[in-house]
Specification:
Blueprint (H helix, E strand, L loop, with lengths): L7 H16 L4 H8 L3 H8 L7 H11 L3 H12 L6 E4 L9 H9 E8 L10 H11 L7 H10 L11 E7 H5 L5 H14 L5 E6 L13 E6 L5 E5 L3 E5 L2 H17 L3 H22 L1
Parallel strand pairs: 2-3, 3-4
Antiparallel strand pairs: 1-7, 2-5, 5-6, 6-7
Organism: Amycolatopsis minnesotensis
Protein name: Helix-turn-helix transcriptional regulator
Length: 288
């Protein structure tokens, strides 16, 4: 059977099968021996490159002793493994940790992020993240600390080796939205300036003065990988959407190209943030 370009679902299926194998304390060689398969067949199934059948998945999970819940999840993925894109519905609110997003961020070599209203999650400090979650009122009070911790843990990506390259386009609205008050915003703006000097991070501001811009449809993240095609990530209050078809990726690349033409360059962006921090400080002095 020929290898194929793995879809998001097929990669998640492979990751789930690998986790089951590791949970049973098997190596790929040992699992192949148990199943009477070749090691290459096991490897391709775990890497999402082999079109395994439901029976293949059932055999792996039976040998590994997976739970009934995990079997049901992975078999559902197997049935739709070749369907491009993935809308994930999460009920009344997004979970504390978006597993599929985190796994793709971990594998990315380039990440492009455009935000219109709030500071990107990977650039938020703890006080800003906590204030943002609290002020929106969409998360139970008992989950706020866990959500802040999960958000901050993702920031390890910024210094992961080998370095991932990030480009953040942030609209001026996000810098001026007074999340948490003047002190919190001042600290957050200074956090942006500290991060903006990193060699693998480009931070560019989309100023309000330009008016309409290519990203008016809203925020998104485009992730590029070494071993498979790019993925675009979109989210809302109760669901998230992963896009991977060529025409979809091309559309978001056009938006990024347009934003690159409209946004301030890196130097201008740092100066803009610094001036806004001074403006915020001066305003706070007058209020005192």
């Amino acid at each position: 059977m020929d290898d194929r370009e793995p879809t998001i679902r097929r990669r998640e299926l492979g990751d789930g099968l690998r986790a089951a194998m590791q949970g049973a304390d098997f190596t790929g060689k040992q699992l192949a021996h148990k199943l009477k398969w070749s090691e290459g067949r096991v490897s391709r199934l775990l890497n999402g490159k082999r079109g395994g059948s439901e029976m293949d998945v059932v055999e792996v999970l039976a040998v590994c002793g997976a739970t009934a819940e995990e079997k049901a999840r992975l078999l559902a993925l197997c049935r739709e493994a070749d369907t491009p894109g993935w809308l994930q519905k999460h009920g009344s609110r997004l979970p504390k940790q978006l597993v599929t997003l985190v796994e793709h961020e971990d594998k990315a070599v380039v990440i492009w992020d455009f935000q219109t209203i709030v500071i990107p999650g990977l650039l938020q400090n703890a006080d800003y993240a906590r204030a943002l979650i609290d002020e929106t009122g969409n998360a139970p009070a008992g989950e706020i600390n866990d959500r802040v911790a999960a958000r901050l843990a993702r920031q390890a990506l910024l210094s992961r080796r080998p370095l991932v390259h990030f480009t953040f386009f942030v609209h001026e609205f996000a810098l001026r939205l007074p999340v948490g008050g003047a002190d919190v915003m001042s600290d957050q703006l200074h956090q942006l300036l500290r991060l903006a000097v990193r060699p693998n991070l480009s931070l560019r501001i989309v100023p309000t003065a330009i008016g309409g811009h290519p990203g008016v449809a809203g925020q998104f993240k485009l992730m590029e990988f070494r071993d498979f095609k790019p993925v675009v990530y979109l989210d809302s209050e109760t669901s998230c959407l992963f896009l991977e078809e060529d025409v979809e990726i091309a559309a978001y690349r056009r938006i990024l190209s347009g934003l690159a033409d409209k946004a301030l360059d890196e130097g201008q962006s740092k100066e803009f943030i610094a001036n806004l921090a001074v403006e915020l400080y001066s305003s706070g002095e007058r209020d005192d």
